[in-house]
């Protein structure tokens, strides 16, 4: 892979921060090293002394005075080493990426910690997307992605999808306007980036089959583009075995994967990960050096302590309990939907994640219905248009989340929604007479 061909001018111009390099060198050195180099403040002046974070199972994460000083101090831009190495092992166990054994230049698997996967995604987009580029994605998609990608001035090309995610034949059709032989030619317009949410898509709840992923990967090889696999709902898959990821198929080193702890450990701690070929992850780290410097040392240490205490087995056991909760929530929502919405709406049962994507029958656009009428009836949903590339285009869908409300609240909400839809349909009928 010729990675430099994918980089934007901004990313290409990034240089390692000399101070950050020294800081990282110092942190890897024995305590006998006397460093007058770093500009780090003296943690003895900080007001916090120690902390005990009580866990629900009665255990505790303890930050004694030494640990607290570390938690309150600057740390390495790629993430604290103990968290990075734990996560690398997890990625190897879950995805067994072919790139794990590659040399760095060949695209060896690398990983860095980011402040939520959103930071990672945003930096990956800025690294790879230049104004005028053609970028492939399957809309409707996560509004946070659109918010990060659209200002980059690229041309977003929608690849049709269904409940099983992006349709490879449709992608092939979209790509047929270019010649794969032109992929390396400057200015050929052949897309260099494809973005997708492979599990429990936000907003559609769609999950991509392994077969589709393989076909999309083959097209990526033919046209030499990178795949950005945004997978925050990977751990919220309701069926086992979990679907193989793009990372697990990545024989070329063309997949950049973002993971998130937001849905399983805490969204407020802001811990996410970028995993991908070293030459690209290193560029993301250069961007981190120049912006946040690193994700909060405190939250990284807190999570790292927990993970080392749990081990992989304890972590996966915790995931099982989270999945059980969301499965019950999903089933409750599906049964309420069956009770109240069968005549007026359509949906698919999501195989992962926390969303149901509902098409309201006979309603051309849900924007006004939700923003005005639904509020009056005290039920709030997201109008589907906000997830489209052109948000002003009419959209008959709404996104509902089964994460936070109780089954009783969900049932009541759908009762109200059903009444609302019926009322809207009656009004339309009257207008037609
Ligand atoms: C598809 C998708 N990607 C990325 C994110 C960002 O997650 P975080 O930054 O909390 O890891 C979200 C959050 O909802 C999401 O739905």
UniProtKB/TrEMBL annotation:
Pfam families reported for this sequence: Aminotran_1_2
Pathway: Amino-acid degradation; L-lysine degradation via saccharopine pathway; glutaryl-CoA from L-lysine: step 4/6
One GO molecular-function entry: glycine:2-oxoglutarate aminotransferase activity
One GO process term, biological-process aspect: alpha-amino acid metabolic process
Catalytic activity annotation: L-tyrosine + glyoxylate = 3-(4-hydroxyphenyl)pyruvate + glycine; 2-oxopentanoate + L-kynurenine = L-2-aminopentanoate + kynurenate + H2O; L-kynurenine + 2-oxoglutarate = kynurenate + L-glutamate + H2O; glyoxylate + L-phenylalanine = 3-phenylpyruvate + glycine
Keywords for the protein's UniProt record, in alphabetical order: Aminotransferase, Pyridoxal phosphate, Transferase
Keyword Ribosomal protein listed: no
Domain of life where this protein originates: Eukaryota
Keyword Transferase: yes
Domain Aminotransferase class I/classII large: 65-417
Enzyme Commission number(s): 2.6.1.39, 2.6.1.4, 2.6.1.63, 2.6.1.7
GO cellular component: mitochondrial matrix
Enzyme class, spelled out: transferase
Function as written in the Swiss-Prot or TrEMBL entry: Transaminase with broad substrate specificity. Has transaminase activity towards aminoadipate, kynurenine, methionine and glutamate. Shows activity also towards tryptophan, aspartate and hydroxykynurenine. Accepts a variety of oxo-acids as amino-group acceptors, with a preference for 2-oxoglutarate, 2-oxocaproic acid, phenylpyruvate and alpha-oxo-gamma-methiol butyric acid. Can also use glyoxylate as amino-group acceptor (in vitro).
The protein's name: Kynurenine/alpha-aminoadipate aminotransferase, mitochondrial
Organism: Hemibagrus wyckioides
